[in-house]
Automatic annotation (TrEMBL):
Protein name: Gem-associated protein 2
Record text on subunit structure and interactions: Part of the core SMN complex.
Domain of life: Eukaryota
UniProt keyword list: Cytoplasm, mRNA processing, mRNA splicing
UniProt-listed InterPro entries: GEMIN2, Gemin2/Brr1
Job of this protein: The SMN complex catalyzes the assembly of small nuclear ribonucleoproteins (snRNPs), the building blocks of the spliceosome, and thereby plays an important role in the splicing of cellular pre-mRNAs.
Any one Pfam family match given in the protein's UniProt record, by short name: SIP1
Length: 242
């Protein structure tokens, strides 16, 4: 079978190695002969001689993103606690999903809230709104407010909050409330951007947990909770605490 592949496709006769390559070929047969001669002159293996001195040094250091930082002794959650949190979270999501379905099918009466919400492009406005820094007004994430957010808004606000947590190096109580509420209404399957966002959230929480020396019990619980939900509910299992 393979022998037939080695047979020449064209019969070109005898090849004269004294062909003058400075002149154009006089016929198609002569052109084929020139191709054969040039192929015979090529080495079977060619290795480039690269001078590394011509390559510039990288201007930035890129560190690969790792999983979550291991919890310090006595700060990591027990497995049964994590399982309870995932079950509670799943039940809340199911209840909210049923409510949204009833609203859409007019089985449940619902009126949008009268609160003036920031626009989707107003990242600073959403940070102030969710963190309680909006003229001292604490905007607790009510069910009505969360239900009026469409999915692009949910994802965008989550990105704002995750970036804010990473910048502040802490998880405020008010921001934690909003983070949990938004995760409750976050639709699955996750988009690649949202998957990356949630992983960043879990990683940031693990860093805060590992670096902070004077965390309150409720702060440790909140950090453990978000790591748990990202890892075990949203299936980023490589980030899970043992």
């Amino acid at each position: 079978m393979t022998d037939c592949l080695r047979e020449p496709a064209f019969v070109v006769g005898e090849i004269d190695n004294e062909i003058n390559f400075s002149l154009p070929p006089a016929s198609g047969e002569e052109y084929i002969k020139r191709v054969i001669i040039e192929a015979q002159r090529c080495s079977d293996i060619v290795v480039a001689d690269i001078d590394s001195r011509h390559f510039g040094q990288p201007t930035i250091d890129v560190e690969p993103l790792s999983g979550c930082v291991e919890a310090p002794p006595c700060l990591g959650p027990m497995l049964d606690w994590q399982q309870c949190q995932v079950l509670d979270f799943s039940n809340i999501r199911l209840h909210i999903s049923q409510m949204k379905n009833e609203i859409q099918t007019a089985k449940r009466q619902w009126k949008p809230p009268q609160t003036n919400l920031p626009t989707i492009e107003d990242g600073k406005g959403w940070i102030q709104f969710c963190s309680g820094h909006n003229e001292g007004q604490k905007n607790v994430p009510s069910l009505n407010t969360v239900l009026c957010l469409n999915q692009p808004m949910v994802e965008q606000i989550l990105e704002y909050l995750v970036e804010y947590i990473g910048t502040q190096k802490k998880l405020d109580y008010e921001v934690g409330q909003w983070l949990y509420a938004l995760l409750v209404v976050l639709e699955m399957p996750l988009t690649p951007n949202m998957c990356s966002c949630l992983r960043s959230a879990a990683r940031t929480c693990s860093i805060i947990r590992a670096n902070s020396k004077n965390l309150e019990v409720h702060e440790i619980g909140a950090l453990n909770l978000f790591i748990c939900l990202v890892a075990r509910y949203f299936r980023q299992l490589d980030m899970a605490d043992p």
